[in-house]
Design brief:
The chain is mostly helical. The termini are far apart. Helices cover 74% and strands 0% of the residues. The chain has a single domain, classed as Tetracycline Repressor, domain 2 (Orthogonal Bundle), CATH 1.10.357.
């Protein structure tokens, strides 16, 4: 009985597994070597945010599914628990962590919404602009953005084919590999 009260919720365990897959995809050497994502703390953060946002958007497509909403929130919480722990390991003091996490969470929501809007736009330049700004820190265009946009569109296509229900059922997110 106590296990049910204090044990891990099923969506938390699933979110942790999903997050491990997100991080594995975000750490793919190909993203940094071939697509030119900066191999920095910021670049890795952007890749985790990007991949996590793609999964969250897939789960949000299951609009009225309470399990999808819970899993999406648990994935978000797991990601920010990891960011919190990483900042503490890097020596950020307790008083600074909360502010940084809040700033990062706002960034996640902004990036996820920009990604959603740009991915749905007929003009491929919209996604490239979003990626140039967020990933490559460019004010306008960036020569690396078209290749990353192809990767993102491929990821979206693969996740759409897989479907959010598969993620709910324990499926591994189908991100492109080289």
């Amino acid at each position: 009985m106590l296990n049910r009260l204090f044990g891990k919720k099923p969506e938390k365990a699933r979110a942790e597994a999903l997050y491990r897959h997100v991080v594995t995809a975000a750490r793919s050497p190909d993203l940094y070597a071939r697509l030119g994502v900066p191999d920095t703390v910021e670049g890795r953060f952007e890749m985790i945010i990007l991949h996590c946002a793609l999964v969250v958007l897939q789960l949000q497509a299951l609009r009225d599914d309470d399990d999808a909403r819970k899993l999406s929130q648990a994935l978000f919480d797991t990601m920010f628990d990891d960011f919190d722990a990483a900042m503490r390991e890097m020596g950020v003091g307790d008083s600074g962590v909360g502010k940084k996490i809040r700033f990062m969470a706002e960034g996640f929501y902004g990036r996820a919404e920009a990604l959603r809007l740009a991915a749905g736009d007929e003009d491929p330049a919209q996604l490239q602009t979003v990626l140039a700004r967020n990933v490559y820190n460019a004010d306008g265009e960036d020569a690396r953005a078209p290749a990353l946009a192809l990767y993102v569109n491929s990821a979206i296509d693969r996740l759409d084919a897989q479907g959010g229900a598969a993620l709910l059922d324990g499926g591994r997110p189908d991100f492109p590999t080289r």
